[in-house]
Amino acid sequence: MAQPDTKKIFFENLSGAGKAIAVLTSGGDAQGMNAAVRAVVRMGLYVGAKVYFIHEGYQGMVDGGENIEEASWESVSSMLQVGGTVIGSARCKEFRNHEGRLKAAHNLVLQGITNLCVIGGDGSLTGANLFREEWSGLLTELVEQGLIEADAVQKYSALHIVGMVGSIDNDFCGTDMTIGTDSALHRIIEVVDAIMTTAQSHQRTFVLEVMGRHCGYLALVSALACGADWVLIPEMPPEDGWEDKMCKKLSATRSRGTRLNIIIVAEGAIDRHGTPITSGIVKDLVVKCLGFDTRVTILGHVQRGGTPSAFDRILASRMGVEAVLALLETTANTPACVVSLRGNQSVRLPLMECVQMTQEVQRAMDGKRFEEAVKLRGRSFENNLRTYKLLAHRKPESELPVSNFNVAVLNVGAPAAGMNAAVRSAVRVGISEGHKMFAVSDGFEGFYKGQIREVKWADVGGWTGQGGSLLGTKRTLPAKHVEKIAEQMRMNNINALLIVGGFEAFESLLQLYEARTTYEEFCIPMCMLPATISNNVPGTDLSIGADTALNAIVETCDRIKQSASGTKRRVFIIETMGGYCGYLASVGGLAAGADAAYIYEEPFDIKDLQANVEHLTEKMKTSIQRGLVLRNENCNENYTTDFIYQLYSEEGKGVFDSRKNVLGHMQQGGAPSPFDRNFGTKISAKAMQWVTKKLTETFRKGKGRVFANMEDSCCLLGMRRRALVFQPVVQLKDETDFVHRIPKEQWWLKLRPLMKILAKYKTSYDVSDSGQLEHVIRNRPKESDASVAM
After folding, report:
1. For labeling, which of 277, 278, 609, 770 is most exposed (least CB within 10 Å)?
2. What single DSSP character describes residue 773?
3. Nearest residue to 518 (alpha-carbon basis) of 483, 566, 561
4. Which position among 5, 29, 151, 169 bears the catalytic label?
5. Which residues are responsible for catalysis (predicted)?
C-alpha cells in the first residue's frame, strides 16, 4: 500500500553545501542525547554540509583545538543505544564571561562554523542565544585584535542557533517531552516495581526520592504510573496539616488489606511556607505517627544512566533531523528556535519565549502562586496532577454523587501491556462519578456466558504495573452471540460500555452499533480505547501497548547486535509482529538503527532486496561491523524471513554472514512501559468522563432509562496529531482496510525515509509536515491536550 499523495516539499531543495554545522551537548547529560547527535551528524552530511563535534560542551568551544573535531558517518555508528553523551558535557564558567565567548567565537570562525545545534537545558540554550546576539560584535573585536581577517566579518556575519532540549526533568516549557525524560521514568519504574515485591513481603512503607529540584514531573508521572499512595512535588505543595491527611490515607489503605505503601518525593519538594520536605522527614513522620516499618530509597543518578528508551531514541532522531532542516532554512532575521514535540508533531518555537515561560514558572513558585505554576507547566502537567488526585484519593461514600448508572468494562482482542492500567482508571473514575462499575471477564465470550461482576475501588489496586489482561481477553466478536449479550445487559441493567482492545474491539463496536436496530439494549453510550501492540486501529496515531512492544524489540535488537561484538561482520534478520501493520518494524527499526525494514504498506521486490544487500556489502567494507534488518511478519507471503535470510547469506558470502531471529510473543509480554501506563490511565479517565456526560444527556426521565442511538454515542477515543478525539466508529469505516486490518492512511509512514537517510540510503524526505515556527501559548485550547508523551 503506497503512502497517500500529499503536496510534497523535498529537502533536496535545501542544500547544505558550503555550510558548517557544529553539534554540542551542554549541562547535565540525558539518555537520548547520542541519538540526537547521530541524527544531526548524518542528516548534516546527507545534505552536503560539513559537521563538527564540539567535545565537552561550551568548555570545548572556549578551549578549541582538538575539542572541535570534524565528524564522519562512521564516527556516530553504534552510539544510538549508548546512554549519556559520548561527545562529553561540562559546566563552563568561562563561557558566562565576555572573554570566554570571544575565545569561542574565534575557535568557530577558524573552522568556518556559523550553525550551532545545542542540546541541553534552559541555561545552555539561554547562553547560546546570548552568544548569537553578541556574534557580530565579537567578530569586530577579533578583527581589531588582529585574530581574524576583516573579510571574515562579512563571510561569517550571522550565527544561527537551533536548540534541542535534553533534560530528564522535563522542565522546559513549550514541549510535551524533553529528550531523556522517558528513559528516566523507565529507571524509576523499574526500581518501584522491584521495591514493591520486597515491600509486600514485609508489609513495609517505602519513601522514594526522585530527581526534580525545581520540577515535579518525574515524581508526579511515576506516582501516576505505579499508583503511589502519596506524592510531594514543588509546584503544588500540600496544604497545611498534610501530615495527618497522609497518615490517615496510609492507614486506610492498610486497613483494606494492602500490604505496602509507596510515597514518592521530588528532591525539591516543599511545604506551603517554602520549607523543604525531605524523604527523611517523611520517613520519620510515618514511623512516629503509624509505627510502620519504613525505608527510604534515594534513586539519585541512576535516573540519568542506562540505555535510552525507544521513545527517547525516536524523539531524539526526529528532533535531530528537524534541527538540521531548521538550520538550512534559517536566515539572518530568523530568531533562535528550539525544535520540540507537541502531541505527535514536531514544532519549532522561539527559544527565548520558551526560556521566559520556564523562568515564569520558577517566579510563580517563588511567589507562592502554586496554582499559576501548575498552569504554566502546561496542560499535560495539569492533567497529570488532576488524574493522579482523582485515582489516588478516594472520596468518602457520603461525598460521592449518586448516578444509579451501571457501567461495564471489558477487554477484547489480544493482550496488550497497559490494558490493566486503563481498566483501573476506568473503575476508579467511574466510582468517583457515582456509577456502579462492572467487570466482564474474557471479552464478549465471557459477556454472553454471564461472567460479569461488580468491581470496587480496592479490587483494582496494584493493577497499573501488571502486564497482560487481568480481566481476561478473547478475540470472539459479538455478532454470533448478540442475543445472549443483550439478555445479559438487560439482566445486569448495563447503561454504558467501555471496551479496551485492538482491531477486534473496533469491529465489535461496529457490530454492536448495527445491532441497535434490533436490540434496544445496545442503545447506550459505548466507547472504545485502542489497545494493541500492532498499533493498527483506525482513528488513532497510537495505541496502548505499542510503546512496551517497541521497547521489547529495541532491547532485543541491542542484545542481538552486541552478540556479534568483536566477531566477524554479521547481519541480523529479525521478524516482528504486527499482522499487516508495519508500525513495529518501521518505528522499531528507526529506534534500533536498522538498515532496512520490510513492511506490507511499502511493496518491495527482488530488485529492492538485492539493492539492500549491495548497500550493506558496501557499508561492511568500511568500519561498520553489524547490520540489522527488520521484517514485518506479513509483509510479503513469498519473501519470507527464511527467504530473506538465505538471500542475504548467499549474496553476502565473503563479506558478512547472516543470522535470523523471530521475536514472537515476547513483544506482547512484560510489564507495561511508563508511557503505556500513563497513556492508558489518562485516556481511560477521559473516556469515563465522556461516558458520564453521555449518560446524563441520554437519560429519559419519562421512561426511566438511557436511550442513545445517535452515531456520536458510539465512539473510539484516539490520538490524532495533537488532539485526543472522540470519533463515531461508523465514520471510521471508510478510513479502514478491513481485509488487512489496518487504517488506509498511517502517519508513521513519513518516518520511514528518516530511517533510510540515517542508514545512508539516497531517498526523498517529505518536509511538508515539518515543524513551522510557532509561538508559545500560555493556555492551549482544551482539545489540543493530546498529552501523548504523558
Report:
1. 278
2. B
3. 483
4. 169
5. 169 (proton acceptor)
Cα–Cα distance between 167 and 650 in angstroms, integer? 46
Q: Are 786 and 541 in contact (CB under 8 A)?
A: no
Q: Is residue 295 annotated as involved in ligand binding? A: yes
**Is 667 within any annotated ligand binding site?**
yes
For the stretch 726-769, pLDDT in tens is 999 999 999 999 999 999 999 999 999 999 999 988 777 666 55
Q: How far apart are CA 176 and CA 338, in angstroms?
A: 13
- Give the whole-number percent of the chain exceeding pLDDT 70: 95
**Whole-angstrom Cα distance, residue 226 to residue 461?**
10
pLDDT in tens, 160-215: 999 999 999 999 988 889 999 999 999 999 999 999 888 888 888 999 999 998 99
Residues 6+ apart with CB under 8 A from 15: 47, 48, 328
Q: Which residue has the cell 523499574?
A: 190
Residue 51 three-state SS: strand
Nearest alpha carbon to residue 609 among 580, 577, 571, 578:
571
Give residue 375's region: left, alpha or beta (phi > 0; psi -120 to 50): alpha
485 class by beta-carbon count within 10 Å (0-12 exposed, 13-18 middle, 19+ buried): buried
Region of residue 590 (left: phi > 0; alpha: psi -120 to 50; beta: else)? alpha
Following DSSP, what letter does each residue of 125-169 receive, concatenated? HHHHHHHHHHHHHHHHHHHHTTSS-THHHHHT---EEEEEEB-TT
How much is the CA Rg of the chain, to the nearest whole Å?
27
Is 785 a known active-site residue?
Answer: no
The CA–CA distances, whole Å, from 692 to 429, 497, 695 equal 10, 11, 5
- Find the helix or strand (DSSP H, E) in which 313 lies: helix 310-329
C-alpha–C-alpha distance, residues 668 and 545, integer Å: 8
Whether residue 787 is annotated as binding a ligand: the answer is no
Consult the annotation and say whether 485 binds a ligand: no
Residue type, 168: I
Task: Give the range among 329-338, 480-489, 606-615, 709-718 with minimum mean pLDDT.
Answer: 329-338
Q: How far apart are CA 669 and CA 503, in angstroms?
A: 19
| Residue 205 dihedral angles phi and psi, to the nearest 5° | -105, 130
Tell me how far apart the alpha carbons of residues 68 and 629 are, in angstroms, rounded to a whole number.
Answer: 34
pLDDT for 380-429, tens place per residue? Answer: 899 999 999 999 888 877 777 878 899 999 999 999 999 999 999 999 99
- 369 C-beta neighbours (distance < 10 Å), count: 13
Measured distance CA(82)–CA(306) in Å, rounded: 8
H/E stretch holding 311: helix 310-329
Query: For position 16, what pLDDT does the model report?
Result: 72
Cell numbers placing 63: 578551549
Residue 101 in marked binding region = no
* Separation between Cα atoms, residue 335 and residue 332, nearest integer Å: 8
In DSSP terms, 347 is beta-bridged to 340
Query: How far apart are the C-alpha atoms of 567 and 462, rounded to whole Å?
Result: 45
Task: Give the SS3 label for residue 496.
Answer: strand
**Residue 666 DSSP symbol:** G
Check residue 743 and give its pLDDT: 97
Q: What angle do CA 269, 379, 164 make, to 5 degrees?
A: 80
